Amino acid sequence: YESKKIQNHALIFQGSMQEEYLKHVKIEHELRKAIAHNELFMVYQPQIDNAGYIHGVEALVRWKSGTLGIVPPDQFIPVAEASGQMVKIGYFIISRTLKEMKEVQRALGTTFQTSINISVRQFMEAEFFAQLLNALRDSEMNQLSLTIEITENLFIEDIDYIVPLLHAIQKCGIQISMDDFGTGYSSLNMLRRLPIDELKIDKSFIDTIVEDETAQKMVQNIIAIGKNLNMTVLAEGVETKEQRALLTTFGCDRFQGYYFSKPLLKDDLIAFFQKNQNK
Ligand code: C2E
Ligand code: CA
Ligand code: CA
Ligand code: CA
């Protein structure tokens, strides 16, 4: 009986692995046509400061595939990276975002910060820095209003390559944000050595912050670390008034989440600004 049970488990395991593999292959194949077929686009989620003003936006990529429907970025970005498509998609993300945010800033007559996610693979590509500067030049957007979001997992890579590159990026006036802080490969010592402007507290900490005292302590400690290192601290995934109030008492500087706004298409972002700018 036991061995039959184990066999069944093995079969189920194999079956789901096979399914995963087929899905991966299908995504990889369809993704090759996504840019040419205009299936990739960007949405922008507002980031709000302590006084209630819009500080900036985070750009998030979306894929509406003709055959697969909506595929979330968590699913297709790893596939893009594994199949060598991330350089092209990464360039699309940066250039489309800068173009659209330049348009929004023109329409509103104001400037604001724009954050772009950069995956580890993307950051480690030899062309990355030049690509970033080219896209900035083409968009005529001021470098001072661009932020790149990197994750702690970057520290697994060659530190002697990463640290000077981050300094060079920051010297250009581009800000650096540490995304998903506390969920990855963490080294406080590393954090001290890097030129980081902003710490982003991951949504998983915010989710239980109202009822869970441990989560509260973690968040308070993350905010203290950020403050001690002269960084701005932003909480992501803020969904309720209670979460926002608690984060404010803890001294958090900025907020992002459904409580304020879901990620928006360019035109909806303009409308959001017009409604909330002077609040
Ligand atoms: P992330 O960088 O941690 O982005 C935050 C995710 O949380 C986004 O999901 C956002 O839509 C979602 N979110 C924001 N506020 C709330 C909230 O209040 N409640 C809930 N339930 N969710 C909220 P999304 O857009 O599906 O992105 C998932 C991940 O995919 C991102 O996590 C990021 O790691 C990656 N990603 C998205 N866009 C890009 C991109 O353009 N480039 C790269 N390299 N990665 C991207
Ligand atoms: Ca992010
Ligand atoms: Ca996150
Ligand atoms: Ca992330």
TrEMBL record:
Whole-protein coverage range: 337 to 615 of 617
Keywords per UniProt: Membrane, Transmembrane, Transmembrane helix
Origin species: Sulfurospirillum multivorans (strain DM 12446 / JCM 15788 / NBRC 109480)
Protein name from the UniProt record: Diguanylate cyclase
Keyword Transferase: no
Any GO MF annotation of the entry: cyclic-guanylate-specific phosphodiesterase activity
Recorded superkingdom: Bacteria
Annotated EAL domain residues: 24-277
